[in-house]
Write a structure and sequence with these properties.
17 helices; single chain; Growth Hormone, Chain: A; about 80% helix; mainly alpha
Amino acid sequence: MSAAERARAGASDLAAAAATRVPLGRLLAYSAIELPIGGVLNMVALYLGFLYTERGVSFGAVAAILTAARLLDVAIDPAVGLLSDRTRNRIGRRKTWVIAGAPIFLLAAWRLFVPPAQVDAFYFAAWLAPFWLGFSMINIPYYAWGAELSADYHERTRITTARTMLGALGSIAAIAVPVAIWRVSGTAGQPEPPYIAATVVGYSLWLLPAFVALAALRVPDSGGGGTSLPLLRGLSVMRRNGPFLRLLGAFTIVGLGPVLQGAMFPYFMQNVVRESRQDLLLLYYPTLFAGIAFWGALARRLEKHVAWMCGMAVMVVATSFYMLIGEGDIAGMAAILVLSGIGSGAFTALPSSMKADVIDLDALESGEDRAGLFFAAWSLALKFVAAVGQGLAFATLALIGFQRGGENGPDEILGLRLFYSAGPMLLYLAGLLLVRSYPITAARHAVLRTQLGAKRSAIS
């Protein structure tokens, strides 16, 4: 296909995407993939580091491995994004990569969360690398696929809201399903993290292939296919995209907060609250689900970045209350988790919707559809958040002399409490200040779409 033919095809796709609302059945078929992915990633955030430190891998080794794994992604993610943009076949450039990545992701997830009796740092590292490779092969093309389903400013929020709500539903199921199975079986006590994680990965082995097949059959892969802009020149164009850099920076800073708290949640419950109540998370995830819907609706009345800032402000308030939590304070933890669920709902769908908008700015300057490359940068940020957040959490525990499974004195408990509360609070404040001057509003985006349409019409 010639450059002119690709431009005409892109212009046709652009017009069709802008003019139509994605049918509900198609939207759900696309979004369903996020349900098992969200459940598995929830296990990574909550229990992965905990599982391996409990099996004898040191805090320092876990922190180093989680951080070192990101070095591989510096090469892998841009390659996946670029190849996804340039893939051309009958299946679809985004579908091809999602289908190929699913078995790699699932195999590595099973080996990570259902390991043999004896494990060491090498085992952890050996399966963490393919886990994130499979995730990249799914996540980068999958999110680019969603950005290409519509060119409308508000329809993109609807798409990302639906996808994120299914991911939140997966996170809810990741806690509710193992607890329900545990109680139906009549087993006494509360399910422990290894049981919860193994159960989630177990049902994901069935759900993810089924939902990938459904999306491949029901959802069109409408990307233009093929990009010819030289890589270095393309990266130069990306670096000049100020709104994207601001958005990416804020997403990275803000995203560290929930990861820090997720990694330390079991230790906070064991040593501050003195209660092993994993089922308390059942309060957080339904309110997260409601928060996603609330902030998505509010973004239609306000600008997207303003709604996101409001969510950050809620999280600043919520995390500050952790300093007041004491032994046996289940009611206080429950109240904070509910408030945090509502606030953090703004952290998911809204940045993803804004990300699709800044790609239009790149398309106007570069003249090409490079959503995959942009989502590769986003994937790197997401993995950076997951790895560095967890690595920082475990490195801090080691620094303050915190003892897993042992008695900790007042200084260690105070250090845990401060890091769990004040650390995320400062991150949310920094993110709020960074987003305050975000320039792409609904009016500015309408102008971008007009200019982009005119440019593509001129080329054709």
